[in-house]
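Appendix B, Record 12. Input sequence as logged:
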Amino acid sequence: MAAIAWDLLSVQQQDYWADILEHHPRFKKDFEKNIPKFVRKNPETYKEWIFRRASTWPDIARGIPAKQRDKFHHSNWHYINYPLFLDKKVNTKFLNRSTKWKGKFNNNLNIIQAIKGNLAVLSKQGSTKKEKALALSWVLHLVGDAHQPLHSTALFSEKYFKKGDRGGNSIKISGQGHITNLHWYWDSRLDTTTSFRIIELKAKKISDSNQIIGKKQPIKRWLKNSHEVAKHYVYTQILLSSLATHEKQKEPQPTVNISNDYDKQAREKAKIQIFNAGHQLATILNNIHP
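Logged structural output:
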C-alpha cells in the first residue's frame, strides 16, 4: 500500500514526508538501525524505504520495551468492529463505533477516530516535526488497516463469540499451510515478503492491472466498504454454516477449511483493497502537503 502511494506522490511531496519522518521519536532505534545494506549503497531508495518502514511502525511498536510500549502502542486504534451475527443477535453495546474525533488521544479510540486525530496533527500548523512524524506513521499504517476487511468487522454468536471473534483471530482455519487463523490469512493474501524489490514489483503490477478510482472518500466509507467485503468474501455462507452447525449441536468450535476457490477470490479482492488504500492515502497526503 505504501509503495503504491509513494509512486503517486510528486518528488517534492516525497522529499517533504521523508524529511518529516526523520524526526520520528524512535527514528534511531526503529528506523536508522534497521536500514538494509542495499539501501545504504543505493541512496535513491533511502526516502522510499523510510516511508514504507513508517507504514509498518505501529506494528513494530508492539515489540518495543515495556516502558516505551505504553506510550507508542495502541491496539484499539487498528480496527472498528461492525458486528456480524452467526445466529441470534447478542449484546454489542460495549463496542466503540463512534466516528467522532473529540480532540484528545487515548488508548480506546477506534480506527476512524485515530485516523482523524492523527490527520488533525498533520494538518495543524503548530505541530512539531516530531509530532507530525509520529502521526504520519499512524496514518500510513491505519489507511492500510482500514481497507483490510477484518479490521472492520467482528463475528458474534451466543456460544463461540460472545465478545466477538477478534476480527477473525479466533476462527481456526486449515488448508493454507502454516496459516492457522482467519485474520492472519487475510493479512497475508498479498504475500508476506519484506523484500524491497519484490514489494516494488508487486505494487507496480497491482497498479497496472487496476483502474484509477474516483475522488477521495470519507474515512467512514472505507470501513463500511471493508465491512461489505467482509460480509461477502470473508464470512461466506459456507464458512458461517460450518460454524453455526457445530454451535447449534453444542460441539467444540470447528477448524474451517479454506478452499482454493475461496483463496482465489480472496487474493483478487485483496489486490483491489490495497490498490484503493494506496490511492486514498496519496490523495490525503497530497491535500495536506503545504
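The chain has one domain: 2-288.
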